[in-house]
Design goal:
The protein is an alpha/beta fold and about 675 residues long. The strands form seven sheets. Strands 8-9-7-10-11-6-12 form a seven-stranded parallel sheet, sandwiched between helices.
Length: about 675
């Protein structure tokens, strides 16, 4: 039941536990308890719910409930195997619940490992965080690195944007700040955008701090390991916690530093359940605790860059690569309108690869499209391999002769003939990494070719094996997607060739140029990180485009300034604040009708500082057999938007809708 105001009901014969449950309801539930008291706030409790039982978290203990005492159910046992969740953690979750319009129970419970949310948890063996025997010596700092470390005040809140070119040694700055934090008896939390970045960083951290317990938290961990690591972080045994976005909600008793590596990455934004930004939650958490937070990137998000320009964040800059012998790679723009191109690769790029092979160096061909080809089609009748469940094409994966949807997971066998006209001469159109790999093997028969994408690398163990092959010199040519673009240091890699980048130049999404620039800057940064000179060849039909010019000049600041000027003129974020109401249903008419009803609510109509736009279909209008629509809400004032959303959400919950319609509200959306 809800929580509007305390009740003037007859006092219950025993204390009332107000419990948050992991349900899509903005409601707390009251239960009677003989053993509960104020000191139990933050503990888990087993409670009856419906025909079964659930694990909830006690958020308040009161003397009376809004419900008559006779209607209250008794709570089950209060679970005391852990200390109560700390007050600052509870406050953090309340903030996230209010800001992102998410149920408090969903926020609190999603922060716990799965085993702690089970009514009958499995038996767990005790474990200890890993420690190594000997420490890896720290390299000497460059002048810029030393200035960055000295600038960060470890005893007060400050949001520091560490803007360093690729290879400038941002990780070494993190390590020095962690060292200082540990020396003060406090814990450090380091967030990375993707799981495949965790092993390499984890190895470096463990090697630098062998006597300190270090744990990793991410979704690929086995359930027992995840719970064990979480407990070590929660109790304070682990001094360093490395994790992906959900780790930002890990309760830590002595937290003294938060680092967000590759802070621009869209992976920090959760896209289901509570749709939060781990980067923004990290900044709030640091402010709440009065500690520093360091946001690092070679290509900061425009939001962070605008905050730094406005003085809300403090800017630290690393302009040179940490290795004195390393230089930023030369970026060459190759006009494909004037070049001979075979299977997407120009003769000039092929010749550059030949040169690297002769010198025993490594090359990377970057194509951010996995599979063999984006689509299979019939030239006779125009049939195209479309997904039956989505408004998208099925991608051809020729290695196992399957057509797969990269959105919903549907797959089918490759037909022997056109399903519409029977033509047996059906063709793949376009190219993905599998098709490119086949051509590279044929074109360079003596080279050792390694493809790296989500199809070839599906687990941490496979990823570690791939990294070992690259570092060991067992691959001459890498064919890969964005998996290879971030945070990896390959000393022998001296050439990066980029294919298929032009499509993002003219995308409808205003963030597409920002993302393309970041992606290309990151992948270009893999070249020439040691004492070997690096070169980047970008194949394009638009070599005069300002984005490519800024990339060739390694001029992030100039590019970001131009984009911010465009955003300000258009009234786009970060100069406006947005929320998106989305609805999905078997029929598009039902989704649009719900959104139209939402727009017509008095709470939405009677607004001056907030604009509620008309409902429209989403760009991917059909996903997994559901039609999807959306409605944008925008304001020039964040407080005005935040004041509007709770009232509107409560009104939305009163709209009668078809039983199979689902809706959600997303604050600060990234996807349109």
């Amino acid at each position: 039941m809800g929580l509007p105001s305390p009740v003037t009901n007859a006092l219950s014969p025993m204390p009332v536990l107000r419990v948050a449950l992991d349900l899509p309801l903005h409601t707390l539930f009251d239960y009677l308890s003989e053993e509960g008291g104020p000191a139990d706030v933050g503990l888990r409790v087993r409670v009856p719910f419906g025909r079964g039982e659930r694990i909830g978290i006690i958020v308040e203990v009161v003397a009376a409930s809004e419900m008559p005492a006779a209607q209250l159910k008794p709570a089950g046992p209060i679970l005391r195997d852990l200390s109560p969740l700390p007050t600052d953690f509870m406050e953090l979750c309340r903030f996230a619940s209010a800001y992102y319009q998410a149920p408090l129970g969903e926020v609190l419970l999603q922060a716990l490992p799965p085993g702690l949310k089970r009514v009958q948890p499995p038996e767990r063996r005790a474990g200890r965080a890993t420690r190594l025997a000997t420490a890896l010596a720290a390299p000497a700092l460059t002048g810029e690195q030393a200035a960055a470390v000295d600038a960060v005040d470890g005893n007060a809140f400050g949001a520091w944007l560490l803007h360093g070119v690729t290879g400038s040694g941002k990780t070494e700055v993190y390590l020095r700040l962690i060292e200082r934090t540990l020396a003060a008896g406090r814990q450090a939390l380091v967030l990375v955008p993707e799981i495949n970045l965790t092993p390499q960083l984890e190895e470096r951290v463990r090697a630098r701090f062998p006597g300190m317990a270090t744990v990793a938290l991410h979704s690929e961990l086995a359930e027992a390991a995840r719970e064990r690591n979480w407990r070590q972080a929660f109790t304070g045994e682990a001094g360093i916690v490395l994790g992906t976005r959900l780790a930002v909600f890990t309760p830590l008793p002595r937290l003294g530093l938060i680092v967000v590596d590759e802070e621009h990455d869209a992976s920090f934004k959760q896209q289901d359940g509570m749709r939060y930004s781990a980067r923004d939650v990290a900044v709030f958490r640091a402010h709440q605790l009065g500690i520093p937070v360091v946001l690092g990137s070679a290509t900061p998000s425009l939001e962070s860059w605008a905050n730094a320009r406005a003085g809300r964040y403090r800017l630290l800059v690393l302009r040179e690569r940490a290795n004195a012998a390393a230089r930023l790679p030369a970026v060459n723009l190759l006009d494909t309108r004037k070049s001979v191109v075979r299977e997407g690769v120009s003769d000039a790029l092929a010749a550059a690869i030949e040169t690297r092979l002769a010198r025993g160096e490594q090359s990377l061909i970057f194509l951010n499209r996995r599979g063999y080809a984006p689509v299979l089609a019939c030239p006779a009748c125009g049939w195209v391999s479309r997904c039956k469940r989505c408004a998208a094409n099925l991608v051809l994966h020729l290695a196992d002769r399957r057509l797969r949807c990269h959105h919903c997971g549907f797959e089918a066998a490759v037909p022997r003939a056109c399903p519409t006209c029977g033509n047996q001469d059906i063709h793949p159109f376009g190219r993905g990494t599998q098709r490119l790999e086949d051509w590279v093997r044929e074109r360079f028969p003596g080279a050792r070719v390694l493809r790296v994408d989500r199809d070839s690398v599906k687990s941490r163990r496979q990823w570690e094996a791939v990294l070992a092959r690259i570092h060991g010199g067992d691959a001459d040519i890498l064919v890969g997607t964005q998996m290879l673009a971030k945070g990896h240091d390959f000393p022998k890699l001296t050439l990066v060739g980029v294919l298929g980048a032009d499509a993002a130049l003219f995308a409808a999404d205003c963030r597409a140029p920002e993302r393309l620039f970041a992606q290309l800057m990151q992948v270009a940064g893999r070249a020439g990180r040691a004492d070997l000179a690096g070169e980047v060849v970008i194949q394009t039909e638009y070599p005069d485009h300002p984005l490519y010019a800024a990339l060739a000049a390694h001029d992030y600041a100039g590019f970001a300034g131009a984009l911010l000027a465009e955003r300000e003129q258009a009234g786009f974020p970060p100069f406006a604040y947005q929320a998106m109401l989305r609805a999905e249903a078997p029929l598009m008419a039902d989704a649009i009708a719900f959104l139209a009803s939402a727009r017509a609510l008095p709470e939405a109509v009677e607004q001056d500082a907030v604009t509620v736009y008309d409902p429209v279909p989403m760009r991917l209008s059909r996903l997994a057999n559901l039609e999807r629509g959306q409605l944008l809400v925008e304001s020039a004032s964040r407080p005005a938007l935040q004041a509007f959303l709770p009232r509107w959400r409560e009104a939305l919950e009163g709209i009668r809708a078809p039983s199979r319609l689902r809706w959600h509200l997303e604050v600060d959306p990234l996807e349109f």
